[in-house]
Automatic annotation (TrEMBL):
Keyword Isomerase: yes
Record organism: Lacihabitans soyangensis
Single GO MF descriptor: nucleotidyltransferase activity
Residue ranges of every copy of the Mannose-6-phosphate isomerase type II C-terminal domain listed in the record: 23-145
Protein name as catalogued: Phosphoheptose isomerase
Keywords, sorted A to Z: Isomerase
GO terms of biological process kind: polysaccharide metabolic process
Entry annotated with the keyword Isomerase: yes
Superkingdom assignment: Bacteria
Pfam families assigned to the protein according to its UniProt record, in alphabetical order: MannoseP_isomer
InterPro entries with a match to the protein in the record: Man6P_isomerase-2_C (IPR001538), RmlC_Cupin_sf (IPR011051)
């Protein structure tokens, strides 16, 4: 699709990700999130577009963020699940997401992305909630992690 990869990390124990160049963010959002009003998403003029690659039978940490909400769309595979805590306590039951499924996670909301039987691909953008200090990869509070991080 012509997206340029800014950075990548294929060393995550659950799979990895590709961060795309911010100059591609508007096109990325148009392709994967055409139903969202981007003016409300871009308080920092930054969406941090990313492709997550989720390995079979692996889970990201049970986590939340202080300075961002996340918007996901499953772009390949039906073997992706998510758990979200709507009461900020224990995770809800797993919700299986089919290709094309869309989900938004508010900042502070506990969540976990889960690989099921096959590899899954998820498009992600961030809504930075602090214009003076945009979120980054360190803005993760892990409450539980299968990999001891």
């Amino acid at each position: 699709m012509g997206f340029e990869v800014f950075s990548q990390d294929q060393t995550r124990p659950w799979g990895g990700f590709f961060v795309l160049e911010e100059k591609d963010a508007a096109f990325f959002a148009q392709i994967y999130f055409p139903h969202l009003e981007m003016s409300g998403m871009q308080i920092t003029h930054k969406l941090s577009p990313k492709i997550l690659v989720i390995a079979p039978n692996k889970r990201l940490s049970w986590q939340y963020h202080f300075r961002r909400s996340e918007v996901w769309k499953v772009i390949a595979g039906t073997d992706v699940g998510v758990k979200i805590s709507y009461n900020n306590e224990e995770p809800a039951d797993i919700e299986i997401l089919d290709s094309g499924s869309f989900i938004q996670i508010d900042n502070g909301e506990r969540h976990r992305l889960i690989g099921l039987n096959n590899w899954g691909l998820v498009a992600e953008i961030w809504r930075h909630t602090d214009s003076n200090q945009p979120s980054n990869e360190e803005d993760i509070v892990r409450l539980q992690d299968d990999f001891g991080r």
